[in-house]
Amino acid sequence: MPTDNEFFEQLQARLAADPTVSWTAEETSISRLTEEERRKRLGYVPGPQDLSLEERERRSEEHRGLVRSAAAGEWNWTNVDGSARSFIDPVRDQKSCGSCVAFGVTATIEGAARIAEDIPYSDPNGNALPQLSPAQLFYCGGSMGCQHGWYPDAAFDYAENTGVVPEWCFPYTPGNQPCNLCDDWRNQLTIISGYSWTGDPVIMKDWLTTTPLTTCFTVYDDFHYYAGGVYRHTSGGRAGGHCVCVVGYSDNEQAWLCKNQWNTGWGQIPRFENEEVQPHLERGYFKIAYGECGIDAMMWKVDGFNSIYTQ
């Protein structure tokens, strides 16, 4: 088995030798971790109604070369209509805990709430919505803990039946925390009215023009070195399952734009080919090709809200 340095050198050589490849690899904050630490930053375990990771990949492969949808050929919730209006909160860090589902679902709910209230991040009128608590979703919502991971349906069920408090009511710390909410938590809830899922990528793109989505996919070893472009699995073995928030798509690049939760020392700035870099955006996002690694086998969306907590 090659060392990390040997794997990185071989990966770069493969990327350079293949003219069809459109992503770049660098040493990142994630690639520098041990294999065990990298694995702790995943955490998707298929639920009772979910497809296996292998079946997700098989279904997703059928979506390569997608027919363009009736919706706009490109969408990006971090840069709506090229106006630099972002409805997506800053990139966060799940750290050494398999809580990716809680972060991906929280990011989706946050974005959907901002859109419903028409309050972009850094709203020029001074309006604000708080970041929500992935800790509550994960530690109070019935997950099996950091070592075991979770699945989206359970997280969305909790957000519908109980709701999610702001981050300040239950700050996130990696590790198996007790469910320890603030005293006034019942008066600070954002509660969704329901959620839906689809396995049709045309519907996914139509949904994305109205709200961000949650998805899960297979992470391979080369993904840890991702530093920009449209990712396609090139080399390395399977590391595990992972969930993130999808914030856009591009038919021109044949790619989904996703917000990860590995902080900003990994990934790229969230833009497509013809978009200018906005000053308030940081790395931490990635583009992944349609039909790759199970990314579009299934996606989830928020249908609406029973309540949205505002500051």
Automatic annotation (TrEMBL):
Organism superkingdom: Bacteria
N-terminal signal peptide: none
InterPro entries associated with the record: Papain-like_cys_pep_sf, Pept_his_AS, Peptidase_C1A, Peptidase_C1A_C
All copies of domain Peptidase C1A papain C-terminal, residue ranges: 71-304
Molecular function GO terms recorded: cysteine-type peptidase activity
Gene Ontology biological process terms in this record: proteolysis
SMART domains: Pept_C1 (SM00645)
PANTHER family with a match to the protein in the record: CYSTEINE PROTEASE FAMILY C1-RELATED
Recorded family membership: Belongs to the peptidase C1 family.
Name this polypeptide is given: Peptidase
